[in-house]
Specification:
The chain is of the alpha/beta class. It has two domains: about 280 residues, Aldolase class I (TIM Barrel), CATH 3.20.20; about 120 residues, no CATH class. About 30% of the residues lie in helices and about 15% in strands. The chain has twelve helices and 18 strands. An eight-stranded parallel sheet has the order 3-11-10-8-7-6-5-4. The chain has a three-stranded antiparallel sheet with strand order 9-13-12, with no helix packed on it. A three-stranded antiparallel sheet has the order 14-18-17. The longest helix has 27 residues. The radius of gyration is 23 Å and the shape is globular.
Length: about 475
């Protein structure tokens, strides 16, 4: 295994190892501070971070507003206060040994407003901002106003070129690095484009080499590229270290930090990770953001798959293909479906899936009465956690709606992510994970259920294992 040389990251000489930021309290000030204290780079999630009461207990994010806009304002307030608290914790635990970064999703609600307020309220505590899940043009300007380095997350050279040409060239002094997040291997929301096949992963080397070529054209030869997604053993990436074609490479670990003593996820979540097998993490497109994402294929995902399979296309007028009338709801409004779909519908109804939702794609979805009530309740309780949401049709732009029908094939992402991090539920909530998560069960380091501290993990990674 080649020696790892320290690199300059956000004003520190640090190991070229970064804790992946993730979202909704899955990394916090305790885990980020531990990574920084170990001489690496810690990253806490700035997405609806937790706040604590005077006894150190997590304050539940409960919304009392009667309207979406009122609840949205409560959510923004929670987000700002929580991120500032986590920055303070991380800074204190880091003790000046390494940089502390905050991860922000550009598609989260009020991202610009939250980022500005957090950086103002946590001046001097945050050294870098990583930002993805969208095209974060404004993050460079915001970060530079607070003398903070920024690290855009991209999945292609093309995406970075667009960011550079439109905005980043004006703020190049604060570009700390570019995160290449592999869209087939990373956990959470992924940047798969319409031209890329989700079932055909591409070799990351030529894609990262192309990114470096674009960066060289822009005079960014010495700006690090951070490889994220699929990184487990560094010995598997030796050809990337000190490679003149790629230039300075830093490695981001998103999945392995979940299984540490400082990781805030529940013990049941940690035990679930230890038992995963190859193929247990799947790409799916159920997210209300409209983006692809990678998650553990548990009952939550299976229910979404099965729900989506119980749908048929319809027309508002009878034609050769849609020749059978179907009455909807108490008003018995008629639509027309294919007579070839009738038997499927009868079978679904006999199984209890006799309630019908229209989708935005001219199809009707069949669910149980219990599912129907839960979907409607979740849509009514929307707090506007995203910039736009296909599930509830929320939009943060006036008139505060996407103008489309809510999509019952999706789900309330805020609700399930808050539940999975704050309870022991691992089957019926969304569990984001990278596609290498199955390696916990194969890696001898974790035999007999061993869970290391962050310091132990960092020391282990440096050896190549």
């Amino acid at each position: 295994m080649k020696n790892l040389n320290s690199v300059s990251i956000s004003g520190f000489d640090a190991l070229p190892l970064i804790e992946g930021g993730k979202g909704v309290a899955v990394t916090n000030g305790h885990s980020a501070g531990a990574w920084a204290a170990a001489g690496a780079v810690g990253t806490f999630s700035g997405v609806n971070a937790d706040s604590y009461d005077s006894n150190g207990n997590i304050i539940p994010q409960i919304y009392s507003g009667r309207t979406r806009i009122e609840r949205h304002e409560e959510l923004v307030d929670f987000a700002i206060k929580g991120a500032i608290e986590q920055a303070q914790i991380a800074y204190e635990k880091a003790s000046g040994h390494g940089p502390v970064h905050m991860n922000v999703l550009w598609e989260m609600a009020a991202a610009e407003r939250i980022l500005n307020n957090v950086l103002e309220g946590a001046r001097g505590l945050i050294n870098g901002i990583t930002c993805g899940a969208g095209m974060p043009y404004k993050v460079a300007e915001i970060a530079s106003q607070f003398d903070v380095y920024y690290y855009p997350i991209v999945s292609s050279a093309r995406a970075f070129r667009a960011l550079w040409k439109r905005a980043y060239h004006k703020f190049s002094d604060w570009l700390g690095g570019v995160v290449y997040e592999d869209p087939w291997r990373a956990g959470g929301h992924n940047g798969l484009s319409n031209s890329e096949d989700p079932d055909k992963p591409e070799d990351p080397f030529p894609r990262v080499f192309e990114l470096r070529q674009r960066m060289r054209e822009f005079g960014l030869e010495n700006v690090p590229i951070i490889m994220a997604g699929g990184v487990w053993f560094l010995r598997e990436w030796q050809d990337w270290i000190d490679n003149s074609e790629l230039g300075q490479i830093v490695f981001q670990f998103g999945t392995r930090p979940l299984l540490t003593l400082e990781s805030p996820i529940s013990d049941s979540w940690k035990q679930k990770l230890l038992r995963l097998s190859s193929g247990d993490v799947k790409l799916n497109k159920f997210s209300p953001t409209g983006m692809w994402s990678s998650a553990v294929n548990n009952s939550f995902i299976q229910n979404l798959i099965e729900r989506s399979e119980r749908q048929v296309g319809y027309s508002t007028e009878k034609n050769e293909k849609k020749d059978l009338e179907l009455s909807l709801g108490a008003r018995k409004k008629s639509i027309f479906i294919s007579s070839g779909d009738n038997q499927k519908i009868l079978d679904w109804k006999n199984q209890g899936y006799d309630k019908i939702f229209k989708t935005p794609d001219n199809s009707v979805l069949f669910v149980t009465e219990k599912e129907m009530k839960q979907i409607r309740e979740d849509q009514v309780n929307c707090m506007g956690c995203l910039s736009h949401c296909s599930f509830s049709n929320w939009s943060q732009e006036k008139p505060f709606t996407t103008g489309k029908k809510p999509d019952p094939r999706s789900f309330c992402i805020q609700k399930t992510l808050q539940s999975v991090i704050h309870t022991n539920e691992t089957e019926n909530d969304l569990m984001f994970a990278g596609h290498s998560a199955y390696r916990f069960s194969e890696d001898p380091y974790y035999s007999n259920g061993f869970i290391p501290s962050v310091k132990q993990l960092v020391d282990r990674i440096v050896t190549g294992d």
